[in-house]
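Q: Structure for this?
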Amino acid sequence: MPWRRRDAELPPLLRLDRLVAGHLHPVTRPIDLELGRGEIIGLFGPNGVGKSTLLATLLGTARIHAGELWRADGLRLRYLPQRPERPGDAPISGHEFLAWLDARRLDPPQRLAACLDRRIDHLSGGEFQLLCLWATLAGDADLVLLDEPTNHLDCAHVELAAEELAAGQEQRGTLLVSHDIEFLHRVSTHLVHLQ
Amino acid sequence: MTNLFLIPFLAGLPLALALPRLGQLLRMRDEGLAALGLAHLASATALAGQAAHLPGVLGAPLGALLGGAAKALLGARGNGAFALMILAGWCATLLIASNSALGEALAHAHIEGQLYFAGVAELIAALSVSLAMLLALPWLTPRLVRARLFPLHETANRMPAWRWHLGFDLLAALAIAIATATLGLMAAFALVFVPPWIAHRRARNWRHASRLAAGIGLTAYVLAFATALAFDQPFGPLLVLVLLSLLGLSAIPVGLQSRPNP
């Protein structure tokens, strides 16, 4: 289960040493993990094992019960939750959405670019999920945390999600939680099985 | 228009343009009742100030700023905090009116609207707060929208987000207080609430919505002012009537398919 980078020429972005995450009580077992730029670590495991709790700990909304969490100095972080917020009454175009989230480091994939003139509250659930994924990836973040990014996506949209993840991959480290093992195998550079 | 009415007209004009843009952000934050809550507090402290011989435009911001600061510092979000402000402001206004020499006349003026009594002080205050909004909103808007859509972004990056949340709350409180003291309670609330409601249903994007909302506010204001003057009617209720009529007209082509009111 523990993952340590074999190629450690560059300093890591994130290191977990025997980290036990939880809220009021510990949820995870001790986790060892190291993540560097260019890597995509896929986290999987049964429900309740603490995958989302681990992400919450990295975000600062859950507690560290044991072990250590180290973040690189000045680390810029972006997070895509399982269900991104979408106000019901939001005249915000896709272009404005990406501009306001500073997601302009990369050009969007062609199929996503076609949606950007529309309001975000007029997009389908899948289109909005892909827009949020791109907004998370195309910013200036060093570390990206993705919680079930393929939820509610059909096959064509999963294809586009994989394309988005590959774009600019070398510029960031990515921690990806998913139940979709096929997707994890396809996009991850390493897999970590939480038990 | 005679000089007697020129200054009141000019005092309300910048507010008619600026308040709808403020309302857009309040709507985005699911804080549609903000204007009504802050306006009630502003009305109460304006009345208390007038009982102590202070101009309304000085007394009004006190209550609204205290309410806005308390809300921001206590971390209250959503309409619950504003519902409490409405209740507190309403009971304070009526109790002050009943127990001061001003009597009910001033309380009615605050509720019905007293635009024709606006003078140079109200004009300067309205221009200043509208200019402040014009400068601050382009900077605040992306931050507030990001906080609404990705609420954990600020926590995760250890950003001092309280600064812009507090800044916006205070700016909203100040603008609504000055509008309440200038236009009246319900007129101020209507300008914050109705134009963005229409614009958000119709606009292609945020920029378009901002222009549309400001245009609706301006049109309604000019129409209401002219009608009130021509037919000797109270300004506040006429402005609300014009805005409600525009809301009704805007609903017809889209088949009344509006989203629920926040």
